[in-house]
Write a structure and sequence with these properties.
The N and C termini lie far apart (about 50 Å). It is globular and about 60 Å long. Helices cover about 40% and strands about 15% of the residues. It is an alpha/beta fold. It has a seven-stranded mixed β-sheet with strand order 4-10-9-8-7-5-6, sandwiched between helices. It has a three-stranded antiparallel β-sheet with strand order 11-14-13. The structure holds 4'-deoxy-4'-aminopyridoxal-5'-phosphate. 4'-deoxy-4'-aminopyridoxal-5'-phosphate binds next to α5. The site of 4'-deoxy-4'-aminopyridoxal-5'-phosphate has 14 residues, from α5. Keywords: Aminotransferase, Pyridoxal phosphate, Transferase. Belongs to the class-I pyridoxal-phosphate-dependent aminotransferase family. One of its GO terms (molecular function) is glutamate-prephenate aminotransferase activity.
Length: about 400
């Protein structure tokens, strides 16, 4: 049933009578991360100095080569529509990058450049799922996954993982959630919000389960693949696992590794037959990714040295180690040391009755420190810290968190 437009005193009820909201939206929530971010902005506008570990974007600027190429594109008049699928140069550079670093052999025309990985994820879901279909989503999950699935009319099926198992998918448990309606598995590796990295060996076990159910496509969101910190657990692309290439959509983007969040550039790579429906959808939703951003993306892949990339990873690893060492000093706090991404998801269920939203609100009010409640990631009783910020900010944040948790323990 369609819902009536909510009461808004600015609208003339008589003139808007009969306008209803798409019933699919009844099952879709506004992004919580964005909501918390908005509250932080409001507090800041009121003159309060808030420390925020909420937002998922690196604090460093994009590489100089990216900025230069973008400026050159402005000056050179690269301001027109490109092909829906992206410029030939960028598609080719993405295919080469995936081959070189991930061992994946995509043809240039098996790459679809988008306005960010977020768009690629949604298009991938929409291309294969609709009413009656089920989509496997391991939890804790990136909050957009279940909401995007709901927007297509399909049903999100949450597959829990535990902090004790390092938030890794258990292939045996996973199989218990599969039936003939299961059409897609969304696999986020490294994971937002846990930072867990699934090894090649574990992905092979997951693939064995998938092989028994050939109706399931896999959307592998690898946007954090560059940000991994354990040499013994390097990132392996799901599409490179035996038998999985033909059924996998590999999603990636330029927001995290190259700090190009505002430039809105991502892509999906998939065998032509899987890519085609995504191209059809994209051709009707957006004409193409921004031409200037595509020029920047091309420079990211062709002009930024591995040394520069490794330097950023090293800094991020230092931040992870710092946060972990500070968390280890808080008595009774459970957490899992992440191998990738830039998040950590400690379990605060022993504080404030285990309500993570109450925990975050009290922390925000009492210490002006903003974290995201784990319940928005399907991880009740946890909170997510993003350590992609400056060391100064991190130090202040960890001081505030430690103080808060000590106070709440004694009260
Ligand atoms: N996937 C995951 C898991 C993410 O965390 C994000 C960004 N928060 C995205 C996709 C979207 O990235 P983009 O900026 O490329 O749209």
């Amino acid at each position: 049933m369609a819902t009536k437009l909510h009461t808004n005193t600015k609208l003339n009820a008589e003139l808007t009578r009969g306008i209803t909201v798409n019933p699919l939206l009844a099952n879709v929530k506004l992004s919580k991360t964005i909501e918390v971010f908005a509250t932080v902005k409001e507090m800041e506008a009121a003159g309060i100095n808030v420390t925020s570990l909420c937002v998922g974007e690196p604090d460093f600027p994009p590489p100089r080569a990216v900025l230069d190429a973008t400026i050159a594109a402005v000056e050179g008049g690269e301001t027109r529509y490109t092909a829906v699928t992206g410029t030939a140069g960028l598609r080719s550079a993405i295919a080469s990058d995936l081959k070189k670093r991930k061992g994946l052999e995509y043809a240039d025309n098996e790459i679809l450049v988008s306005n960010g990985a977020k768009q690629s994820v949604y298009q991938g879901i929409l291309a294969f799922c609709g009413p009656g279909d089920e989509v496997l989503i391991p939890a804790p999950f990136w909050p957009s996954y279940p909401e995007m699935v709901a927007l297509t009319g399909a049903k999100p099926v949450i597959v829990p993982t535990t902090i004790e198992d390092g938030f890794l998918v258990d292939p045996v448990k996973l199989e218990g959630y599969i039936n003939e309606n299961t059409k897609l598995m969304i696999f986020c590796n490294p994971s937002n919000p846990t930072g867990a990295v699934h090894s090649g060996a574990l992905q092979e076990e997951i693939a064995l389960v998938m092989k028994k159910h050939c109706q399931i496509a896999i959307l592998s969101d690898e946007i954090y693949e560059r940000l991994v910190y354990n040499d013994e657990n390097p990132h392996v692309s799901f599409a490179s696992i035996d038998g999985m290439f033909d059924r996998t959509l590999t999603v990636n983007g330029f927001s995290k590794a190259y700090a190009m969040t505002g430039m809105r550039l991502g892509y999906v790579a998939a065998p032509a037959a899987l890519l085609k429906p995504c191209v059809t959808i994209q051709s009707q939703l957006t004409s193409c990714a921004g031409s200037l951003s595509q020029a920047g993306g091309l420079a990211a892949l062709t002009k930024v040295s591995e040394t520069e990339m490794e330097a950023n990873v090293k800094i991020m690893k230092e931040k992870r180690d710092f946060v972990v060492s500070r968390l280890s000093a808080i008595e009774g706090l459970k957490y899992f040391v992440p191998d990738g991404a830039f998040y950590i998801l400690p379990d605060v269920s022993a504080w404030l009755g285990g309500d993570d939203t109450e925990f975050c609100l009290a922390l925000l009010k009492e210490k002006a420190l903003a974290l995201v409640p784990g319940s928005s990631f399907g991880a009740d009783g946890t909170v997510r810290l993003s350590y992609a910020t400056s060391m100064e900010e991190l130090t202040v944040a960890m001081d505030k968190l430690e103080q808060f948790m000590e106070e709440k323990r004694t009260s």
